[in-house]
Design brief:
It is built from 16 helices and 35 strands. The chain is of the alpha+beta class. Among the domains are: 12-157, Immunoglobulins (Immunoglobulin-like, Sandwich), CATH 2.60.40; 304-359, no CATH class; 591-677, Golgi alpha-mannosidase II (Immunoglobulin-like), CATH 2.60.40. The chain is globular. It comes from Rhodanobacter hydrolyticus.
């Protein structure tokens, strides 16, 4: 048996066919026949099995070293003869067994609940379940159900690891500052104000084309958005929408509109305001006087600097005076070790060949670069976490590439850097968030609680949601998923991660690096509605890229960075009104934030996907209609223990339904959804 820490990535092809079939068994007949037929007959009824690390099934999803973890497992009533927990303990490198005991039936009487307790200790553990009915055995772990013992995909227990509660419970609003709102016209970049890399600045009128008048100079186009503008529009972000976390794309001084080529990490770009403006904005976001008390995440571009940075010194575009020569200017520069030269000065390591973005060389532990970026109290990372700023987290750009010697992310060095960075961040604010940018399976940085808290969820939400709803991937390439394929994808990507990491993964429909969601969906606003409902009810932290809440259009970069249309920023816009309503619903029901996730319907014929979110207080069923037609859907809500005769309410429409024969039958408009709450 392979070591459980060697967790394989899960794609559609990796899930057993039997598991996919079991997940699809969600009809009324299942409830009326399989449940009654359950007995000790040497056959484990797979469709009755369930466990996750929600509060109903796991007594301590984030245990301390002194907290025992009691696990609950569900089977059909009277179906099995025994159940066991098998867990691997990293402290002794051994597997251990815990016999489970029957403790109760669920509220419907359909299911048995079994419990067992893993004793407290400080070591990481990984567990799976063995379920027996006489001579028949099934195995269950985070990746699903198998007839033979799995070698990967186990549930995690990581004592002492906690992700920030505010991130689990919040909604992020992402702002690309130059394109959001012009709050201070006195700092606008004007035509020809400076020239950088052969491109003279262009001042474009709000709402006009984002492309340059000169080929290859799109980064020199400015519209005047700034931090004062973000501050003035907090009434919209926090008040109208109800989002409470503001994530800002780079704000530090730089010659371009995107600021991913940092000139000075310690200075806000003059076109965005000043360091005092930033302090004011952070204070106003933290305030509860203009909406919910909020949080701030800054974009940390630490893989590379700009070539105008004093540390490098290859280009100038303003009156910045450097006290020391840069690495490009002198091999005796105090910053020479910050970069990697193949042939000084003309050949050096860059971010994927972009010469204006020389790659930072992190050297060995304790190097000057590491100390400058995160290692000292005066480092970039620690400066903004501390007062007078007090930001709440960092989003790490190109996070997997940080390395030494010009390499692009050798595992050993990159993970060492990230472990050190985490220590530095948490030493200033133990409740700060670390979000890594990663487009694939980010579990290597997330599965031991020693590096990031979460990642941008391209792999586990953005791509599959786009393929199901829009029929294309996040880059606009043709690709499609059926509901059962979607569910298998989501299951596999959840299984890769600890539960508290799942709950803080950033679920966005689009970002500054993708085509706009509305454009991918052919400008069908109803598909935006469906995307918003999915985003606000799925496991993770909903993340709205500015304008996606009203269906902003835009192709690939730079077209995905159009200016915000403020005529749409009102609840008279149906998508904005829906966003407001969904955030309010999410805030009202903790089950949508930290509750269990259970698949209820995967109807490939009618393109319906439904799932349950529940905790000890509330049970909800989310029904998503991927077709353009109104569909009548029978949802087997007994699976989440909704009892016959009980009433549920669609939180979107207010329509009330009664549970009958274990089901609720609802009518759902095309490319829309229902959120049924008990």
């Amino acid at each position: 048996m392979s070591h459980p820490m060697k967790r394989e990535p899960y794609g559609l092809h990796r899930l057993p066919l039997a598991l996919c079939m079991a997940l699809a068994l969600s009809s009324a007949s299942l409830w009326s026949t399989a449940a009654r037929a359950a007995s000790n007959d040497n056959n484990v009824e797979w469709a009755g099995l369930f466990h996750d690390q929600g509060p109903v099934y796991d007594s301590a999803p984030e245990p301390t070293a002194s907290t025992p973890v009691t696990l609950t497992f569900r089977t059909y009533k009277g179906d099995i003869t025994s159940a066991n927990i098998k867990y691997y303990d990293s402290a002794d490198g051994q597997y251990h067994w815990v016999a489970m005991q029957w403790v109760a039936n669920d509220a419907t009487g359909t299911y048995d609940l079994w419990q067992g307790t893993i004793p407290a200790s400080s070591s990481e553990k990984y567990y799976r379940f063995q379920i027996n009915d006489g001579t028949a055995t099934a195995w269950y772990n985070a990746a699903g159900i198998t007839s033979s013992e799995p070698s990967s995909g186990d549930f995690f227990i990581i004592p002492g690891f906690k992700t920030p509660a505010w991130m689990k419970n919040g909604v992020i609003y992402q702002v690309f500052p130059d394109r959001f709102y012009n709050g201070d016209t006195s700092n606008d970049v004007t035509n020809g104000e400076y020239t950088y890399a052969g491109c003279a600045t262009e001042q474009h009128a709000w709402g006009t084309a984002v492309t340059s008048n000169v080929s290859g100079c799109n980064s020199a186009v400015f519209f005047g958005g700034d931090l004062a503008g973000v501050d003035q529009k907090l009434s919209y972000i926090k008040g109208t929408l109800g989002a409470d976390i503001v994530y800002l794309n780079p704000i530090f001084s730089s010659p371009t509109n995107h600021k991913y080529d940092t000139q000075n990490y310690y200075t806000v770009d003059p076109a965005f305001g000043s360091n005092t403006t930033l302090q004011q904005l952070i204070g106003d976001i933290h305030s509860a006087s203009n909406g919910p008390a909020g949080y701030v995440i800054l974009d940390g571009v630490f893989n590379h600097s700009g070539d105008s940075n004093c540390w490098f010194g290859a280009q100038t575009y303003d009156s910045l005076t450097c006290s020391q020569p840069g690495a490009y200017q002198s091999q005796s520069s105090p910053y020479y070790s910050y970069y990697t030269f193949q042939t000084w000065p003309s050949s050096y390591s860059t971010f994927f060949g972009i010469t204006s973005m020389p790659k930072l060389d992190y050297g060995a532990s304790g190097s000057a670069t590491r100390n400058q970026i995160y290692g000292n109290a005066g480092s970039v990372v620690q400066t903004y976490l501390a007062q007078p700023y007090g930001i709440d987290g960092w989003r790490l750009d190109a996070a997997q590439y940080l390395d030494a010697g010009g390499n692009n992310g050798s595992d050993t060095t990159n993970h060492q850097i990230m472990q050190e960075l985490r220590t530095a961040v948490k030493s200033v604010n133990s409740n700060a968030e670390i979000v890594g940018e990663y487009w694939g399976d980010a579990s290597s940085w997330l599965d031991d609680g020693a590096e990031w808290d979460s990642a941008m969820n391209y792999n586990g939400f953005t791509q599959p949601a786009s393929e199901w709803i829009c029929g294309v991937d996040e880059s606009g390439n043709s690709a499609s998923l059926t509901p059962s394929q979607l569910d298998s994808w989501l299951l596999g990507t959840r299984a890769d991660l600890p539960i508290d990491v799942q709950q803080t993964m950033t679920n966005f429909l689009g970002s500054h690096d993708t085509e706009r969601f509305a454009t991918r969906c052919g400008a069908d606003i109803w598909k935006t509605y469906l995307g918003l409902i999915f985003q606000m009810t799925y496991v993770g932290t909903p993340t709205i890229y500015y304008g996606d809440e009203y269906g902003m259009q835009g192709g690939a970069d730079p077209d995905n960075r159009r200016t915000f249309d403020w005529t749409q920023a009102t609840t008279s816009n149906a998508a904005v009104a829906l966003t407001q309503q969904l955030i309010r619903i999410r805030n009202e029901y903790p089950a949508l934030r930290t509750g269990s996730f259970m698949t209820l319907v995967t109807d490939d014929t009618n393109d319906i996907y439904a799932f349950a979110r529940f905790d000890k207080s509330n049970r909800l069923a989310v029904v998503l209609n991927g077709t353009s037609n109104t569909e009548t859907v029978t949802v087997p809500v007994y699976e989440e223990s909704m009892t016959n005769g009980s009433q549920v309410t669609d939180l979107i429409t207010g329509t009330k339904y009664t549970v009958s024969n274990g089901n609720v039958t609802v009518s759902v408009e095309g490319h829309y959804g229902a959120i049924l709450a008990q």
